Amino acid sequence: MQSSELKNLKIAVVGAGYGGAAAAKALSLLGARVDVYEQANQIREVGAGIGLRPATMNRFREWGIFDAIAKVTSPSEYFEILTATGDPIMKEAWPADGEQTHTHLIHRGDFIDALMGVLPAGMVHLGHKLEGIEDKGDRSVLTFAGGSTVEADLVVGADGIKSVVRRELFSDQGPVFAGEHAYRAVIPLDAAHGMVDDDNLRMYIGRGTKVYLLPLRHRGQVSFDITALCPDGTWTPRITKDDLLKTVEGFDERLVSITRDLDMATVNIRAVYDIDPVGTWHSDSVVLVGDAAHSMLHHQGQGANSAIEDGGALADALRRAGSVKEALALYQATRKPVTDELQRISRQGWSEDEIDEVFPGQKPAAAAPQE
Ligand SMILES: Cc1cc2nc3c(=O)[nH]c(=O)nc-3n(C[C@H](O)[C@H](O)[C@H](O)COP(=O)(O)OP(=O)(O)OC[C@H]3O[C@@H](n4cnc5c(N)ncnc54)[C@H](O)[C@@H]3O)c2cc1C
Questions:
Q1: How many A from CA of 88 to the centre of ligand 1?
Q2: Which of 2, 140, 187, 265 has the smallest C-beta neighbourhood within 10 Å, fewest atoms?
Q3: Substitution site in 181, 291, 308 for ligand 1 pocket (most atoms within 8 Å of beta carbon)
Q4: Is 298 in the pocket of ligand 1 (CB under 6 A)?
Q5: How many angstroms separate the alpha carbon of residue 160 from the centre of ligand 1?
Q6: Considering the entire predicted model, what is its pTM?
Q7: Is the CB of residue 15 below 6 angstroms from any atom belonging to ligand 1?
Q8: In contact, 208 and 43? CB cutoff 8 Å
Q9: Tens digit of pLDDT per residue, the chain (371 long)?
């Protein structure tokens, strides 16, 4: 599209997570008028670390925000997979993307703060919970709790795994329980019993449990994450220290000690869900990005990274295509095959016999999505 057309576009982004913030940045760089509507009154993220892949960091370089993000990260060279007791299974350099060879390890809270910090003042409107969307062809109308409405030429649904935009326009299929829990905490480096002395991600695998040590040495901390098979699909399950200790039985004694020392009040506990691939992500004036489009399990560490790449691909498509309608089709054609595959392989986190052991003769029961 011509830059004069892009400048006249009024874009409404629903959701100010990584996907919404990245799309807002990329689209505002096209010159479009962008507003972001977020249901929460305060932007907050879970206490845990993630790795920003080389392709993601390249997008940040392209958007002129590399330094703002990189300064709250530690560059990492490789990841390693080990047995529960620490015998090496494999060690691999992060897949490079052009000049960028490092994955950057970041605290989720720092990441969302850094992204918010690079958006123009006044772009994000907090306390706006989307309740309905009317697709009128070449524009759409959003209705928020309290009754206020907004009309836009393009609506970007970045409202996460329980997306209202997806449910209203594209799919009534709810999230799917993965039969596992994630327990995540950020601990001081010196509480890691000497297990962290570089900036590389390590995953220890036992039967039905994976333990991740993701260094955040720039903060003097480590993200300590346990993912364990569990049949309880309650979104925010009640888990005790003893439950946690059972998941790491037989692991390296230092991992057991880290678990024993955890302050349960600081541990984020949740059942893990994804969604089945959604057939269509767009109409002529509405499009899905991030978890709203393709929520995936975290076994490949690609959900947030994919959300960032979506924003970049959507902006590229608008620049290349002749109209919004064409651009949305091009965006889906570019991104959906990639995320369909990531959704598929992310579901291959466990062996059949591990699953049989935890769910003998039964399927994990999903709970209804909660607000
Ligand atoms: C245990 C675990 C570990 C993970 N580890 C990794 C990892 O290592 N690497 C990685 O890349 N990814 C990882 N992920 C995935 C990653 O967290 C998600 O893919 C990512 O947060 C998706 O971003 P998003 O912006 O699409 O959605 P979200 O982060 O869910 O943001 C959606 C936003 O929309 C808002 N919203 C929702 N509904 C409405 C509404 N009706 N109106 C207005 N606003 C609304 C929400 O409040 C929220 O701010 C992990 C996920 C889990 C569960």
A1: 32
A2: 265
A3: 291
A4: yes
A5: 5
A6: 0.96
A7: yes
A8: no
A9: 999 999 999 999 999 999 999 999 999 999 999 999 999 999 999 989 999 999 999 999 999 999 999 999 999 999 999 999 999 999 999 988 888 889 999 999 999 999 999 999 999 999 999 999 999 999 999 999 999 999 999 999 999 999 999 999 999 999 999 999 999 999 999 999 999 999 999 999 999 999 999 999 999 999 999 999 999 999 999 999 999 999 999 999 999 999 999 999 999 999 999 999 999 999 999 999 999 999 999 999 999 999 999 999 999 999 999 999 999 999 999 999 999 999 999 999 888 888 887 777 765 555 444 43
- Residues 342, 332: Cα–Cα separation, whole Å: 15
Does the beta carbon of 126 lie inside 6 Å of ligand 1? Answer: no
Question: Hey, what are 160's tokens?
Answer: 């996460």
Q: What are phi and psi of 276, to 5 degrees?
A: -70, 155
Distances (CA, A) of 122 to 35, 38, 119, 125: 8, 13, 9, 7
CA of 292 to the centre of ligand 1 (A): 9
Residue 249 CA, ligand 1 centroid: distance in Å: 30
Look-up: residue for tokens 């570089």?
Answer: 198
Residue with tokens 């570019």: 334
305 C-alpha to ligand 1 centroid (Å): 11
Residue the block writes with tokens 């889906």: 332
From CA 110, how far away is CA 336, in angstroms rounded?
28
Q: How many angstroms separate the CA atoms of 281 and 135, rounded?
A: 14
| φ/ψ (deg, to 5) at 12 | -115, 125
Q: How far, in Å, CA of 49 to CA of 47, rounded?
A: 7
Instruction: Decide whether any atom of ligand 1 lies within 6 Å of the 160 Cβ.
Output: yes
Q: Specify the residue for token string 């393709």.
A: 294
* Alpha carbon nearest to ligand 1 atom 35, residue: 15
Q: How many residues can be counted in the chain?
A: 371
Mutate to test the pocket of ligand 1, among 159, 278, 287, 309 (most ligand atoms within 8 A of CB): 159
Shortest-distance atom of ligand 1 to CA 164: 41
Q: Are 177 and 358 in contact (CB under 8 A)?
A: no
